[in-house]
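Need residues for this backbone.
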């Protein structure tokens, strides 16, 4: 079982590997696996083809040897038939000899005739005729055995048979004197008088076993085995690959295999070869045409495997060369692919270190080239954004400075202090205290310890203080109301947002006729955001002026002028700066009925550290 830790470590090592070596690894892996698969398939195809071809060749060789031996036996049998039908020999075996001289003279002529017949049969050691009348004829120069042939077992077996009689390999000839090391296969037929049908003797032929062995050696080479079996499956001849006769485990195995084959009901046709199935040996079985004997050719299949293994080394060498070539191509390809990426990586390191003057050059027209163009564009955009942020921060500081300056401008302070003085002269001490307290709150919230973001609760204190002061300054020429959802009190808002809108409503909403107006400040939960509105019932704005005001507000958001007034313009600029372009200020007005200014911002709760970046 694979250790999960080792598997994880291997995955981490591969994941952390450089792109160059990962490309080499994957390229070699992707190319090597198909190459190995193709190599194995080719090896199997060629190996099976070689095995099939070798088996077919071996089958043909064994079948040819079997046919050759079978043909030899057929020729010898036919030769015996030819002799038994010879007219001179028919006459010689009918004759009754009157003297020894006549018999010997006839024997001599018969020997010469047999010798002439067997001249072209090199595989036949000897042809013999043994007559009932005492005549004996032979084709070779060997001497006859000194015995009464008519009393021998082999003679009686032949004379009593109606078919050719085949005798298993035996030492020495039945008829003539030979060396005891000579082994023969003998076939014999009765010599039948054609005129009377009487059996007048026998005809025999000796086939030298060495002749059969020589044929087998030529046909099977150095690997074959041939068995000659009788009709009962008994071994008559076992010739191994060296041409020697022997009896071993292979012979017994093959004999059992053949016996089992025919016990299973398998039939064979005389003269036709049959392949007996086996995993280890190629066994070709063939019955002889004239006898009940069987010839079996055997070849070990391991010989075929050795032949197929001869292609293993060439295929392995070819695969090795292909894999090495693939690895070289992989290295070259990964180098060409990763070189631009490595150059891009170094340029990125320069950017990380603050060097924005870098550019990737000599870009190719492909994915890497497009990546380089994107990098160049990114660096340019970063430079532009950094410049933009710097400019926006400068504008924000100037805007906040102008907001603070508006709180302490001499006119506002003069009016406020003057109102306090008159309240004191009139003995309205509490009202004077309230105005001074409101002025103190106004300045305290404006400073906010340097914070740019305050809570809605603080912003409401600021706008309430401003409304209180202005209501006294303007002798209560307007009424005001402030409504806020208590659940939003801890939400954050840029400071000094509502006061400019209220100031704008006071300055532009009241008419010279001195009619009182109503100013309503509301803060509510709207679409998961916060809606702040300042509504007045003043004179309103004419449609033409409203359209022009909206246009100027839109232009001021993108490019505020240094000499522009504060009020709506400053608020319109600051809202998108803090919250993005999805948020801002909108104004609606009906001439003669009043004006409403709405600001929509997201809900942000109070955090430990206030910073503009939290809203951008």
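Answer:
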């Amino acid at each position: 079982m694979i250790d999960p830790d080792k598997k994880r470590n291997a995955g981490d090592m591969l994941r952390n590997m450089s792109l160059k070596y990962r490309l080499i690894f994957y390229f070699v892996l992707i190319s090597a696996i198909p190459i190995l698969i193709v190599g194995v398939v080719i090896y199997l195809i060629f190996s099976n083809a070689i095995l099939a071809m070798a088996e077919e060749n071996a089958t043909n060789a064994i079948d040819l040897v079997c046919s050759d031996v079978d043909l030899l036996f057929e020729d010898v049998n036919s030769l015996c038939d030819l002799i038994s039908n010879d007219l001179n020999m028919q006459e010689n075996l009918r004759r009754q000899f009157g003297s020894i001289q006549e018999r010997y003279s006839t024997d001599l002529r018969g020997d010469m005739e047999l010798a002439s017949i067997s001249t072209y049969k090199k595989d036949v050691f000897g042809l013999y005729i043994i007559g009932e009348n005492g005549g004996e004829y032979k084709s070779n120069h060997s001497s006859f055995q000194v015995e009464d042939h008519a009393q021998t077992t082999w003679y009686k077996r032949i004379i009593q048979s109606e078919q050719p009689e085949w005798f298993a390999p035996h030492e020495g000839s039945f008829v003539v004197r030979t060396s005891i090391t000579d082994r023969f296969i003998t076939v014999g037929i009765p010599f039948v008088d054609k005129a009377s049908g009487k059996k007048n003797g026998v005809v025999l032929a000796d086939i030298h076993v060495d002749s059969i062995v020589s044929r087998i050696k030529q046909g099977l080479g150095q690997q074959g085995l041939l068995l000659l079996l009788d009709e009962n499956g008994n071994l008559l001849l076992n010739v191994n690959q060296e041409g020697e006769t022997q009896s071993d485990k292979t012979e017994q195995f093959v004999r059992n295999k053949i016996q089992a084959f025919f016990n299973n009901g398998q039939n064979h046709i005389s003269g036709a070869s049959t392949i007996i199935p086996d995993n280890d040996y190629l066994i070709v079985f063939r019955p002889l045409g004239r006898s009940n004997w069987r010839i079996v050719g055997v070849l070990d299949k391991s010989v075929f495997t050795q032949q197929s293994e001869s292609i293993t080394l060439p295929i392995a060498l070819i695969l090795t060369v292909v894999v090495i070539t693939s690895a070289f191509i992989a290295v070259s390809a990964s180098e060409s692919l990763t070189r631009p990426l490595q150059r891009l990586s170094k340029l990125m390191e320069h950017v990380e270190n603050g060097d924005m003057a870098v550019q990737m050059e000599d870009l190719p027209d492909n994915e890497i080239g497009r990546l380089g163009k994107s990098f160049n564009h990114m660096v340019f955009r970063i430079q532009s954004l950094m410049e933009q942020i710097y400019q926006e921060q400068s504008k924000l500081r100037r805007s906040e400075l102008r907001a603070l300056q508006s709180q302490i401008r001499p006119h506002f302070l003069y009016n406020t202090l003057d109102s306090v003085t008159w309240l004191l002269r009139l003995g309205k001490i509490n009202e004077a205290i309230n105005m001074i307290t409101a002025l103190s709150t106004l300045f305290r919230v404006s400073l906010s310890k340097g914070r740019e973001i305050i809570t809605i609760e603080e912003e409401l204190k600021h706008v309430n203080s401003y409304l209180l002061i202005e209501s006294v300054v303007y002798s209560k020429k307007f009424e005001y109301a402030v409504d806020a959802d208590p659940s939003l009190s801890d939400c954050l808002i840029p400071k000094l947002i509502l006061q400019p809108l209220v100031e704008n409503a006071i300055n532009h909403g009241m008419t010279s006729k001195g009619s009182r107006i109503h100013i309503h400040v509301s803060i509510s939960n709207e679409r998961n955001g916060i809606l702040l509105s300042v509504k007045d019932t003043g004179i309103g704005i004419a449609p033409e002026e409203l359209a022009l005001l909206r246009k100027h507000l839109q232009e001021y958001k993108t490019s505020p002028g240094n000499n522009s007034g504060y009020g709506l313009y400053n608020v319109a600029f600051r809202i998108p700066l803090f919250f993005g372009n999805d948020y801002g200020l909108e104004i609606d007005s009906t001439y003669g009925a009043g004006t409403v200014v709405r600001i929509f911002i997201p809900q942000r709760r109070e955090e430990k550290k206030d910073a503009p970046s939290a809203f951008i």
